[in-house]
Design a protein that fits this description.
Radius of gyration of chain A: 22 Å
Strand content of chain A: 5-15%
CATH superfamily of one domain in chain A: Winged helix-like DNA-binding domain superfamily/Winged helix DNA-binding domain
Distance between the termini of chain A: 50 Å
Strand order of the largest sheet of chain A: 1-3-2
Helix content of chain A: 55-70%
Mean pLDDT of chain A: 77
Oligomer: homodimer
Number of helices of chain A: 7
Order of helices and strands of chain A: HHEHHEEHHH
Low-confidence stretches of chain A: 1-12, 153-172
Number of strands of chain A: 3
CATH topology of one domain in chain A: Arc Repressor Mutant, subunit A
Largest sheet of chain A: 3 strands, antiparallel
Chain lengths: 172, 172
DNA sequence: CTATATAGTTTGAGTTCTAAATAAAGTCAA
DNA sequence: TTGACTTTATTTAGAACTCAAACTATATAG
């Protein structure tokens, strides 16, 4: 019998669903933070992250930057392009390896970084640093555990259990 | 003298930097999983999330869905539009309040949801569920703490914590 | 009936990914 | 050495997602 009431509330809420829900909120927070940065600094979160990274390791290649901050090269290329248009940094092919494109920060970019807009979540950093140490450790451990669980795909996993369609590219 | 030392490895790596780095990796993982979903199911992560949500609470409004999954209405509108084009769900204005748009899943959508893989990587769900309970709890607690710290924008100021839908179904 | 509030949609800007196209270097063999 | 292949890095093109702000339509006051 299909009940008259519409509310199909699901009590069954698995722990991993809760994890996903929490992650979603966190991701959204970061997103919103980025938006607010645009108003305060004129740069989005990713742009500022890259600019800071370039400032720290001046003269590194696009690929290095991408690896450092966990973004694809294509993504970094796009952001760097926008930053270059604003004269915050400039690109130049490497002398030693002409395949590489080195990125250097400009005076203007350096100034902007120095006036150091509160890095993305400076407010968060502040609160976080005030937590008792055990709590900081717990959070960090939990996150790293998650990273492992998600990453693991490429680490282990060699079982021969999966037949199904042979369309499983798996690992490499 | 400039060349010489290249490796400017980050010695100064504060806990909160590590947190951000880990989050970035997690976000990327989720992003990549979404891409792989497209190939396997034909839907992206967000699309599948919404479709599942609609399946669970059939006949809810766009706004309700948006709130439930922590996305803006505008975003949900766009995704729902794409899903409607694929005949996986359909929109209909509410009879009681013509401002509202109710979303209903179609037979086709229901079928797809039934056959769809979990939102997170299957392997992740699997591994996570195998963790000892205390570890699952720790991860969840840590994430919820992060949510608070990031959200804190609203509770740091005034002690009174507003509504903001205290919808945290802890479990465990 | 006007004024305000709410629900959804549209628009504009930015980020993100993959896949395919380029380009430069490195490797290997004749 | 030279030519063919392979590897590595960057760029381009295309599709989604994301949000805020502006806009439309409806609802609820006063």
């Amino acid at each position: 019998m299909k009940g008259a009431d519409v509310t199909r509330n699901e009590d069954a809420f698995s722990p991993s669903d809760a994890v996903l829900a929490a992650l979603r909120k966190i991701i959204r927070s970061i997103e919103l933070n980025s938006r607010s940065l645009v108003k305060r600094v004129g740069l989005t979160g990713p742009q500022l992250i890259i600019l800071k990274e370039v400032s720290r390791m001046n003269g590194s290649s696009i690929g290095e930057v991408a690896r450092t901050i966990s973004l694809s090269q294509a993504t970094v290329t796009g952001i760097v392009e926008r930053l270059e248009k604003r004269n915050l940094l400039l690109r130049r092919r490497s002398d030693v390896d002409r395949r590489k494109v080195m990125v250097e920060i400009t005076q203007e970019g350096e100034t902007l970084v120095r006036d150091a807009p509160p890095l993305m979540q400076e407010a968060f950093v502040d609160r976080f640093s005030r937590l008792p140490e055990w709590e900081q450790s717990m959070v960090l451990s939990a996150l790293q555990l998650l990273v492992q669980l998600m990453d693991a795909k490429s680490l282990s996993e060699s079982s021969g259990l999966m037949e199904e369609d042979g369309d499983i590219p798996v690992v490499l």
